[in-house]
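Journal club prep — side note

Before the paper discussion, L.F. wants everyone to see what a predicted structure for a comparable chain looks like in token form. Sequence:
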Amino acid sequence: MPYKLSILLPGIRVDRWVKLYESIEKSFSGSWEIIFVGPYPLPDGLKDKTNIQYIQDWGTPIRCRQIALVNARGEWINFSADDCTYLENSLDNSFKILEENNMNKNVVVVGKYTESRNPSPLMYQTEYYLLKYHGFTTRIMKEETMLFNTGIISKDLLNEIGGWDCQFEGCALACVDLGIRLNKLDKIKMILQPHILFSATHMPGRSGDHQPIHDGQTLHDQPLFDLIYSGNEIENGKRIKVELNNWERSPDRWVRRFGAS
């Protein structure tokens, strides 16, 4: 495939990076790069790879993802967590959907994924990737609005709406916000791929090193999300675009995980 793909990864779980890299080699036959953004350096097994960008940053996961976006060199973007393992040919299958739509840059491929060793069967169903499954009010958007926690999107389109809002700490509600904003653009066509894109090894909730992420999403992001969408921002057409450099207003150190500097 002739397409150039940038894979954006907030980097914390360094021990998983080599396996992650190797899984992408089996998942995508086109040209690709990974952009790791985080506090920990590359492991020895990846230091000689020429398709890796490494950027040191101690900020929140969503700030790191936005920094990766700004530095991405590919015309297409994929994003995930750094403890993922991509399934064989799964990224190629995502691009086949784009090919069927003439590589239209207003087409967004929404990726299915699994979390933990015991994923919910609902993760394989369409409903899991819609707002109605996650309990957001229909006042915000239609129940059938598709979320966008991972997948393939053109960099031009992501730049146009400013990427992720780095007011959020974690990726979960920042991605819900991104999906809502994308769905407000009339030109966008969201397509849910039928296959699983990748499997993440972390367990939901507070297990393992997930405590800071869980706390960030529940103690900070959920109240922020409720505040943002408590007014008329969606109804009157606002809240579609954010500034691409909004990561600069996010703290350069995520105290919840790394403590005060």
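L.F.'s comment for the group: The chain has one domain: 4-232. Keep this in mind when we get to the figures.
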